[in-house]
Amino acid sequence: MSLLSVNHLNVVFRQRHQDLQALFDVSFSVSRGERLAIVGESGAGKSILGYSLVNLLSKPGVIDSGSVKFDGRELTTLTARQWQEIRGKKIAMIFQDPMITLNPVLSVGDQMVEAIRSHTRINYNDAKKLAIEKLAHVRISSPAQRFEQYPHELSGGMRQRVIIAIVLLLRPEIIIADEPTTALDVTIQAGILQLLKQVCEDNGVALILITHDFGVVSRIAERTIVMYAGRIVEQGPTLEIINDPQHPYTQGLLNALPQMALPGQRLNQIQGNMPALNNHPSGCAFHPRCPYATDKCRENTPGFVFSGVSTVACFAIEDMLAEFDPEGGWQGEVEDE
Q1: Dist CA 178 CA 42 (whole Å)
Q2: Is 337 within a domain?
Q3: Which residue intervals define the domain ABC transporter in the entry (predicted)?
Q4: HSE toward the beta carbon, residue 188, CA cutoff 13 A
Q5: Rounded distance, CA 187 to CA 156, Å?
Q6: Is 291 domain-assigned?
Q7: What pLDDT score was predicted for residue 260?
Q8: Cβ contacts of 186 within 8 Å, gap of 6 or more
Q9: Which helix (H) or strand (E) segment is 72 a member of?
Q10: How far is it, in rounded angstroms, from Cα 9 to Cα 195?
C-alpha cells in the first residue's frame, strides 16, 4: 500500500459570484522512502497541491472533492485536533522562505525545544541535547553555539538547514519541500538539496519536492509529476521524462533550460503565459501555447495514456499511439522506396 495516496483531488477558491478551480482531478501516490518531484511554472498549482496535502490552504481555498490518504487514513475529514497528530509529526513541510517558519524573537534552540516538547514528554535538557545533535546532523558548524543564536544572526542557507533539523526532530514519514532553495544563493542551493536527499535516504523518509527547475529534479527525484494549469499532464520516472519527454509542455520546459542553448544564443522559451484561474481555456489548457494543438485539443480535455513507462495527457500522443496495432506494428502508410 502507498504511504500517501491522492485520488481525484479538486481544489476551488470560493468567490461571491463564482468558484475558481485551482486543481483538477489530481491523482498520484507516494511510496515509503520515495523521492517525488512536482514540476511546473508559477501558477501551475504545485504549491496549492502541497498545501492541500497538509490542510494549510488559505481561505477561500477549499478541497471541493477527492481523497487524500496517509497510510490508509483519510485526511480530508480530520478535525483541527486530529491534524495536530499528523502535521509535523507524520507529514512535515519546508517552505520557500525559512523566516516564514522561524520566529524572529525566539532563539533557534528555544524553537527546536518547543517543537520537540509539543509532541513528546521529554525534559528540557534531553530536548536540548537532541536538538544540538540534529543541528550537527544537518552539518551546521558549532551546533551548540547556533542553538543559542536568533534566526537573524544566521545566513539564509544556515536558516534552511535549521528548518530541516527541526523537521527531522519529530521523525516524519514524508517531507514536502516547497521550492526550498529559491531564496538562496546559487552556490548554496546544491548543498541544501544534497543534504535534503541525504537525510531522506538516511532516515527512510519520503520526499515531495515542489520546484520549477528541472535541473534540481534530475539530482534529487526518482519520479516526476509535471503540472500545468492545475492538472497533471505527465508523470513517470525522472530519467525517462528528462531523456524522452512526451507532453509538449514538458518538452518546452526542458528546452528552456540554459544548457539547451548555445553560448551567446537566445534562450528558448514557451510562448504565452500560464492561464489565470478566472480565464481557464476550454479543452486542453495548454492548447493556446501548444505548437501541435488541433480543434480536438481546443474542444476536449485529454485523458491519460501510457507512453513507454510514463503516463501523459495529450491527444497528439494518443493519436500517435493509436496508429500502432496491438502487436506493436505501425498502422500508418509506409512510403515506397
Answers
A1: 12
A2: no
A3: 6-254
A4: 13
A5: 12
A6: yes
A7: 77
A8: none
A9: none
A10: 31
C-alpha cell at 130: 537532541
User: In the chain, which residues have pLDDT < 70?
Assistant: 183, 325-337
**Domain boundary residue, one of 150, 172, 194:** 172
Instruction: Please check whether residue 186 lies inside any domain of the structure.
Output: no
Structural domain ending residue among the three candidates 172, 204, 232:
172
- Alpha helices in the chain, H assignment, sequence order: 46-53, 80-86, 98-101, 108-117, 124-137, 143-148, 156-169, 186-203, 214-220, 238-243, 248-255, 295-299, 315-322
Question: Using an 8 Å Cβ cutoff, are 289 and 272 in contact?
Answer: yes
Q: How many of the other CB atoms lie within 10 Å of CB of 219?
A: 12
> How far is the C-alpha of 322 from the C-alpha of 302, rounded, in Å?
14
C-alpha distances (whole Å) from 258 to each of 264, 268, 308 are 11, 8, 27
Q: Of 19, 27, 5, give the one whose Cα is nearest residue 303.
A: 27
Structural domain contains residue 225:
no
How many domains is the chain partitioned into structurally? 2
Distance CA 46, CA 48 (A): 6
Q: Residue 93: which of 56, 39, 41 has the closest Cα? A: 56
Partner residues linked to 312 by β-bridges: 234, 305
Edge-to-edge strand list for the sheet holding 223-228:
91-94, 174-178, 206-211, 35-39, 223-228, 231-237, 310-312, 305-307
